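wait is this the right file?? whatever heres the structure
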């Protein structure tokens, strides 16, 4: 029977491609990691890696085994988090981290709902990137995170999530943008036209490496939505949530740019993330349910 230590060594060598790199991340010696892999190979009865110099190249069977090993390793981490969460302490403050694209009205409605039941509770709303948010969840600095979905099967750390709904992303520019002036009788432009202009992109979209969000080679990263929209009044274009841009469209400062290759809009999901077992505590269980309930009314 394999051990969790052997599974962890196998997963790390598979992901890092060498015993040395895996040993560094596991905090073990290279010899120890190699012995764990050899013992695991003896257990399963076949070779897992071909050693080529400093590289550990996975065998065909290792490729097939990796997914199942990863599931077991994640379940073990989840069990640890769940057992820790069962020790409930009195809560006076809740920290919610969020991406800049989360609608302001959604956050305001969530706070009012929480306060209606827990009037004593201090609620801190903290703008962070996805990477920062997940680190804060892991070390206990944050309780919940409302972030875009990156479309991956496994999260970056021992957390779970609930899908809240989707935001519509559309392209926007100033009304006298070259994108529109060059086609005065037809505002429909192509991806090629977008690539010739500066693209403003939110920090989280850029760091998450969302493929469709990066179009132009002339990219400028902006952390603040208000600043991004202000810059749009003078230059470039951006893909932004439709709900956030309504006031700018109403004032006439910015206009929607119709893209030939993209019908209507692109959807991006919003999730609420939290540590495994967090929802065993009544306050957080209620809060998560309210976040889901309120989001279902305002998101598709």
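ok assuming it is, sequence goes like this
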């Amino acid at each position: 029977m394999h051990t969790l230590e052997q599974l962890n060594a196998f997963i790390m060598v598979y992901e890092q491609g060498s015993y040395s790199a895996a040993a560094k991340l596991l905090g073990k010696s290279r010899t120890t990691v190699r012995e764990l892999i050899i013992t695991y190979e003896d257990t399963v009865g076949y070779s897992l890696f071909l050693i080529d110099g400093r590289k550990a190249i996975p065998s065909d069977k290792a490729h097939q085994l990796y997914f199942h090993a990863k599931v077991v390793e994640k379940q073990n981490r989840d069990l640890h988090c769940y057992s820790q969460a069962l020790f409930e302490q009195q809560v006076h403050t809740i920290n919610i981290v969020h991406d800049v694209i989360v609608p302001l009205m959604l956050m305001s409605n969530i706070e009012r709902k929480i306060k209606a039941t827990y009037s004593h509770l201090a609620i801190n709303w903290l703008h962070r990137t996805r990477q920062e948010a997940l680190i804060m969840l892991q070390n206990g600095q944050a309780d919940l995170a409302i972030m875009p979905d990156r479309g991956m099967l496994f999260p970056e750390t021992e957390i779970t999530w609930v899908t809240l709904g989707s935001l519509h992303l559309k392209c926007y520019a100033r009304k006298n943008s070259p994108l529109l002036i060059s086609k005065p009788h037809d505002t429909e432009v192509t991806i090629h036209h977008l690539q010739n202009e500066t693209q403003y992109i939110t920090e989280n979209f850029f760091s998450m490496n969302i493929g469709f969000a990066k179009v132009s080679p002339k990219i400028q990263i902006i952390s603040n939505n208000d600043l991004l929209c202000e810059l749009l009044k003078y230059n470039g274009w951006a893909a932004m949530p439709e709900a956030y841009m309504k006031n700018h469209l109403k004032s006439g400062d910015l206009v929607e740019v119709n893209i030939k290759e993209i019908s209507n809009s692109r959807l991006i999901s919003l999730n609420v993330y939290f540590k495994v077992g967090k929802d065993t505590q009544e306050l957080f269980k209620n809060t998560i349910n309210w976040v889901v309930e309120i989001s279902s009314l305002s998101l598709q």
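Residues 60-85 form the longest helix (26 residues). so i think its the right one actually
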